[in-house]
Amino acid sequence: DAGVIQSPRHEVTEMGQEVTLRCKPISGHNSLFWYRQTMMRGLELLIYFNNNVPIDDSGMPEDRFSAKMPNASFSTLKIQPSEPRDSAVYFCASSLLRVRGGEQYFGPGTRLTVT
Amino acid sequence: QQPVQSPQAVILREGEDAVINCSSSKALYSVHWYRQKHGEAPVFLMILLKGGEQKGHEKISASFNEKKQQSSLYLTASQLSYSGTYFCGTEAEAGNQFYFGTGTSLTVIP
Questions:
Q1: Which of B30, B42, B98 comes nearest A106 by C-beta?
Q2: Contact A100 B29 (CB under 8 A)
Q3: What is the reported pLDDT for A98?
Q4: For B29-38, how does the pLDDT look when each residue is reduced to its tens digit (9 = 90+)?
């Protein structure tokens, strides 16, 4: 199995630009999670989907962030406009089950730098 | 709502044991444990569901005290490969949120 795939692996952009991060979950998994990791705030759950439906987006920091999952094999996290404080590593993870009791498999992450 | 882990950091010599604690202010349904090596993604270790069960994974085991909303990860006879940052993740009994803990940096030296 290829595991969770994320692209791009690194992204450098200027403040104000739109950023789109992509994720392909493990085939057959029905839950997908977006996390952000920084030294200051640690690992934060931004949003998670179950069967392509957003279940909890209370971790999304503000309206500049949006996430979609148009089908079971693809999800995007968009930041528009980006700001320097958005610089972080963004992980996508998938699971066979909902958050409750389901082990999560993480992708390699996207390192975002906003200058 | 983020669970608190202790200690924040620990340094061990090969063969020594360590305990990492995770404490939540919420009644918990489950506790997850993950390990993250520098520059890599977190990797799942184990899940414990409410009921106080203990689980093992080679020389790494964990317990879950649902009454105290606490979990502990036990690493015995540590190996160099155990180095990394360990995170607990908690699911509350009520609601859908999942929170990772503050993390514990573990370094095993020869």
A1: B42
A2: yes
A3: 59
A4: 889 999 999 9
